[in-house]
Amino acid sequence: MGDMGEMQRFACYVAGMDVADRPDAAEARAQAAGNGRAAGAPPAPPRPKRRGVELALLVGAVLISFCGYLAVGLARTHAVPAGALRYAAGLGGLALLAHLVVRFGAPYADPLLLPTGVLLNGLGLVLIFRLDLETPADHAAPAQLVWSTVGVALFIAVVAALRDHRVLQRYAYGCAGLALALMVAPILFPAVNGARIWIRAAGFSLQPGEFAKVLITVFFAAYLAANREALADTGKAVWRLRLPAAQVLGPVVAIWLVSVGVLVLERDLGTSLLFFGVFVVLLYVATGRTGWIAVGVLLAAAGAAAVGTLEPHVHGRVQDWLHPFAGIAAGRGPGQLAQSLFAFAAGGTFGTGLGLGHSSLIGFARKSDFILATLGEELGLAGLSALFLLYALLAACGYRAALGLRDPFGSLLAVGLAVLPALQVFVIAGGVMGLIPLTGMAMPFLAQGGSSVVTNWIIVALLVRITDRARGPRPDAPARQARAAPDALGAVR
């Protein structure tokens, strides 16, 4: 209940509601007074940079990944892998370069973001290397390391080139147009495993939907920030929900419907669900209206029921979810979902140990959708819990940055970028564990896929830039102090 109250207060803040209108204003003022902060006191000094903490965490992340690499080699071949030192040097060099750029280009950035990304990326490389041992004719770890290098290079470019995240607000409609173009492009190429989500040419493949999700999030944040007052205060009231005026909500809904329609035609239902979730969350945060969450859940349930009934490809996945052991009963043997559930069961609390599982039984998607099953079998419930905590930490950094910013666009963008990996992890983990039907997305940083790892490094770069603004000194603080007093959350507006 406390977490929901904090989220509601944050949504009210972004929506522009006065503190006096919030029911917890008196309580917040009393708490501020109890903490010894006077009504006209200056804001707190900027937080310490913590770049030394970031460097120490990066060393730990590289060491953990290196130890995992060694453990896989020793378990499978009883010898140190031949490329162990090259792997450690490569990952450590990338981490050091990224750290130097953050140290000098974004000195106040959250010190947890970069180490979390490096550790997740390192664990992904370890798991892909471990799965390569089961498929000698298909080695994906070297290509994944190359894509990781490209992702870190783009991370460095974004942090160095984007000095202020607010610049992105100027290009909102350009981002929306480019996102739609990227989503339409795969229609011209053949379907792969029932979905048209890839661009393939000359042995090179790209999943443009991964890049489109960042662009569409920028558009959602920019449009909702510019129209947050009209969205919250205008329109007709239907029961307890005030619907915004059509001319205000129309453009963003139109772009969202077009993007989701294209994704449904391509059978990329995972990304369409991701877009819908980000849209609903940002609409709730921008307006402060809790009813949007209920509307979003109802619409998602109705859409899922319709698509799951009418679309044969999706209907098959729903049937596999409802009856994961039907193949065993029919004498065909266990399917992928059943093998995944067996892997989680075999892992128990602490797992079988890296390299000692039976990942080859899962099938063709063991390096992408079902890579989580390998981790669950070989590291157990303890390893899965640690992994989910890393993803939660990444999302929490975004939420904390949103609370520290004073511009609505930055706050909404931080929330949207934090929601992207959080929703993706929920959808993928739910599908692999049999909680919801499979959707066919890649686990952030963990699964094989160049487009995915590059996009996730861009998300981390944007969050680094946003957190640098949120945690850093505010040059205009004296001018704001002369015009306004602190609100109940201790921030000057």
Protein topology:
Blueprint: H1 2-15, H2 25-34, H3 51-77, H4 84-105, H5 113-132, H6 141-161, H7 172-184, E1 199-201, E2 204-206, H8 208-226, H9 228-233, E3 237-238, E4 241-242, H10 246-265, H11 269-287, H12 291-310, H13 312-322, H14 326-329, H15 336-347, H16 371-404, H17 408-432, H18 450-471, H19 477-483
Antiparallel strand pairs: 1-2, 3-4
Helix pairs in contact: 1-11, 3-4, 3-5, 4-5, 4-6, 5-6, 5-16, 5-18, 6-18, 7-8, 7-10, 8-11, 8-17, 8-18, 10-11, 11-12, 11-17, 12-13, 15-16, 16-17, 16-18, 17-18
How far apart lie the N and C ends? 27 Å
Shape: globular
Annotation, overall tally of beta strands: 4
- Summarize the main sheet: 2 strands, antiparallel
Round the mean pLDDT to the nearest integer and report it.
80
DSSP summary: helix tally: 19
Structure description:
66% of the residues lie in helices and 2% in strands. It is an all-alpha fold and 493 residues long. The chain has two domains: 1-38, no CATH class; 46-472, no CATH class. The protein has a two-stranded antiparallel ribbon with strand order 1-2. Strand 3 (237-238) and strand 4 (241-242) form a beta hairpin. Helix 4 (84-105) packs parallel to helix 6 (141-161). The two termini are 27 Å apart.
